[in-house]
Design brief:
This protein has 427 residues and is mainly α. The chain folds into 2 domains: 186 residues, MFS general substrate transporter like domains (Growth Hormone, Chain: A, Up-down Bundle), CATH 1.20.1250.20; 206 residues, Growth Hormone, Chain: A. It is built from 17 helices and no strands. Helix 14 crosses helix 17. It starts with 15 loop residues before the first helix and ends in a 12-residue tail after the last helix. The relative contact order is 0.14.
Length: 427
């Protein structure tokens, strides 16, 4: 089962395929950075503790920088922010890749943080552009689902590619190659007409709080924080379970099945018109995600059982994530769309770090099944937040429907050549 981007109906708009393809190329290295930085630091210092600090510094800096860079895009446009960020991040990774044995830990941690802080906000930029390139406004949820689905390929291929390059040459070379690919992909994305044409909403009020002044955005950020915690805990729980069964080498393939499950779920969501289109639908998807991942508590005694459960659980990820993204498009205040998408990235990174830390401590003290309890708890918390904020989510869904109807009416008026000069319905 394949996703053919060149023939997908949601990509019939001019330049849509090239825009999405270059964004995926630019984001492939982002799935390599964390593991490559970790392996490079461990090789240079011989310490996993230092390697963990470097990886943590990268994640924290990425989370801190994401909303700042997103807000900068909303004020200055995409081109300058993407180009400057891409060049700066590539130079930092080049410098890191050239380091030699005995490099002080402080230098490695500093470069890890710098690479995270400079990483261009590609995900937020492409998701801001999706409403501009969709061929039919009604297909927007499906386009978000397609983007989430194709992005899963980077998470499936990125870590093994980073490790493979490190084994073939060295972790430093892997960092330099990934930085170069990220720069080339970022520049290719930045020169796309849709990205170059995009301009900030000049008339939009610049109020304090930015996108977070929207109650719906705050609800979505909290949801993503808890789902990110569930994902971070899942990685630790599955790895700990594999080691406890004497099959530590199976951890990588098991997590790969997780990505495959998400890819398949995204394909189904894309072909069925997108993810959830209502608050109730999003709550149901979150519930399925929580139950599916929480079931890992019952599967830690068998590698086969873990493989089956994590594949099924993964199938809930892409549909849920795409539903959240589609809601952001209608909920973000004017002039803050890129920042809003960036807050989701920050929440996901922070959540993953918290989930990993909590599950790691429990895995060490009480075993993998108890570590997977963190997964269930975080998933349940995401559902609780959605239920508590369901009024805001319903309002965003109604706003999206009104905008789609208005846009569809506008397109129909233009296509039928209304000779009476009737004004289209206001969006």
């Amino acid at each position: 089962m394949k996703v053919r981007m060149d023939r997908h109906p949601t990509l019939a708009g001019p330049g849509a395929t090239a825009l999405l393809a270059t964004s995926i190329l630019a984001r492939l290295p982002l799935a390599m950075f964390s593991i490559a930085l970790l392996v490079q630091a461990q090789r240079l210092t011989g310490s996993f503790a230092v390697a963990g600090l470097v990886s943590g510094a990268y994640a924290i800096a990425s989370a801190a920088a994401a909303p700042l860079l997103g807000g900068l895009v909303d004020r200055c446009g995409q081109t300058r922010v993407l180009v400057c960020g891409g060049v700066a991040a590539a130079l930092v990774l080049l410098a890191d890749g050239l380091l030699r044995d005995g490099t002080p830990a402080s230098v490695l941690v500093g470069l890890g943080a710098a690479s995270g802080f400079c990483t261009p906000p590609l995900a937020a930029c492409v998701r801001t552009l999706l409403p501009e390139i969709v061929a039919d406004p009604v297909q927007l949820p499906a386009l978000f689902a397609l983007e989430s689905t194709v992005l899963e390929l980077t998470f499936v291929a990125g870590p093994p590619l980073a490790l493979g390059l490190g084994s073939l040459w060295s972790p430093g070379v892997a960092l330099m190659i990934s930085g170069s690919v990220m720069l080339v992909g970022t520049l290719a994305f930045a020169v796309q007409p849709a990205s170059r044409r995009w301009r900030p909403e000049r008339g939009a009020p610049r109020e304090r709080g930015g996108s977070l002044r929207s109650p719906t955005i705050r609800v979505l950020v909290a949801i993503v924080l808890f789902t990110g915690s569930a994902f971070g805990a899942t990685e630790v729980g599955v790895t700990a379970a594999a080691h406890s069964l004497g099959a530590g080498a199976a951890a990588g393939p098991l997590l790969g099945l997780w990505g495959v499950g998400s890819l398949l779920g995204g394909i189904v969501a894309t072909r069925s018109g997108g993810g959830a289109r209502s608050a109730r639908g999003l709550i149901l998807l979150l519930s399925a995600l929580a139950v599916g991942h929480g079931a890992l508590m019952l599967a830690t005694g068998s590698v086969v059982a873990i493989g089956i459960v994590i594949t099924l659980a993964g199938a809930t990820i892409a549909p849920t994530v795409s539903s959240v993204y589609a809601t952001v498009d209608s909920a973000a205040p004017a002039g803050t769309h890129t920042e809003a998408f960036s807050w989701l990235l920050a929440a996901s990174l922070v959540g993953a770090s918290l989930g990993s830390a909590a599950a790691g401590g429990l895995a060490q003290a009480a075993g993998p099944a108890v570590a997977c309890a963190v997964v269930a708890a975080a998933g349940g918390a995401a559902v609780a937040v959605a239920l508590f904020g369901s009024r805001s989510l319903r309002g965003a869904a109604r706003g999206r429907d009104r905008r789609l109807r208005a846009t569809t009416s506008q397109v129909t008026t233009i296509e039928t050549g209304d000779i009476c000069g009737s004004a289209p319905m206001p969006a």
